[in-house]
Amino acid sequence: MEYANDLKQFWKRGYGHDINSKSSCILFHDLFSRLEKAVSDHKSGQKVTEAVTVQVGHAETLLPLLTLLGFFKDNNRMTSVNYAAQTRRSFRTSLIVPYAANLVLVLYDCGNDDLRLQPLLNEKRVDFPGLTNQKASMPRFQDVKELYRELLQGCDFESECQLFRAPAEG
């Protein structure tokens, strides 16, 4: 039963199709723009106007965002015929997005311009994919931005999700 549900979510909202995660581009950019605003306010000596932002959604919102961020990506794609090879998979929706699932990004100022970002999923520390060699699960904010540089410069929901593309000029 668990594998059947994970398989469905993998193809519907997870890594099965690239477009699944692109639906979270707007949320991704909103998260990072809020973090950047907090950093900017703090560095300029102003009071941080949004110390906490709470956005509420469903598993169907959170799973594509986690996919876009690269969390819980296994080496092999889930299919209906590779169940036996998937026993150690990290993509398990019952653990990733249980009832009342939540993602928290905590921005720390560790002094000397050392800003760090700690991700918590369901109140448990998780590592940003590719940044596991850093201090526990609290890498430098600059390194997190570099990790997601392509998404920060692109990942435009409108261009990703439009039904018809304008013909190329030329």
UniProtKB/TrEMBL annotation:
Origin superkingdom: Eukaryota
Taxonomic path: Eukaryota, Metazoa, Chordata, Craniata, Vertebrata
Claim: Lyase is one of the keywords in the record: no
Keyword tags: Hydrolase
Residue stretches in coiled coil: none
Gene source species: Takifugu bimaculatus
InterPro entries noted in UniProt: His_Pase_clade-2 (IPR000560), His_PPase_superfam (IPR029033)
Protein name: Multiple inositol polyphosphate phosphatase 1
Gene Ontology MF: a single term: inositol phosphate phosphatase activity
Keyword Protease: no
